[in-house]
Amino acid sequence: MTPFAHSQPFTVGVEEELLVVDPLTLRLAPSATKILQRMTFAKGDASHEAYAAQIELRSPPSTTSLEAVATLADLRIAAIDVGATLMGVGVHPIGTRGDAALLDDDRYRHVEDTVRGLI
After folding, report:
1. Using CA atoms, how far apart are residues 18 and 28, in angstroms rounded to an integer?
2. CB neighbours of 14 closer than 8 A, spacing ≥ 6?
3. Whole-angstrom distance, CA of residue 6 vs CA of residue 14
4. What is the model's pLDDT at position 9?
5. DSSP label at residue 9
6. 88-109, pLDDT tens digit by residue?
7. How many CB atoms neighbour CB 79 within 10 A?
8. Do 84 and 34 contact (CB within 8 A), yes or no?
9. What is the SS3 string spanning 9-26?
10. How far is CA 28 from its chain centroid?
11. Using the 8-state DSSP alphabet, how is residue 117 labeled?
C-alpha cells in the first residue's frame, strides 16, 4: 500500500473543451484544425477534441489555480485573435442531431465504430 504523501508542492491543471461557432449564426463551425494551426501555444496546451468544431485548452501543472486559469484565459485570447468564436457549453444549445462532424482522425473513427453511444 502506498501512503498518501508528497515530496513536492501540489500542482493543479485545468482543461476545457470549447465549441467553435460561426460569429453571426452561432452554429457549429468545423474549423478547429484551422484555428489550431494559426494559434501560438506551448506544446500540449491546445489540441483537437472529438469534433471538428471543438478545441481543448489545457494549462500545464501550475502552483495555483489562479495561474492555471490565467493560462486558459491566454489560450482563449490566442484562439480569438486568429478568428475563433468560442462557446463554453456541454451541448450546443441550438444544435440538432448530426450537426457535429466528427474530426477526421483514426482515433475518433475507432471510438465511433466501437462505442457509438458516446459519439
Report:
1. 11
2. 58, 59, 62, 65, 68, 69, 71, 72
3. 20
4. 80
5. -
6. 988 787 777 777 777 777 777 7
7. 23
8. no
9. CCCECCEEEEEEECCCCC
10. 14
11. G
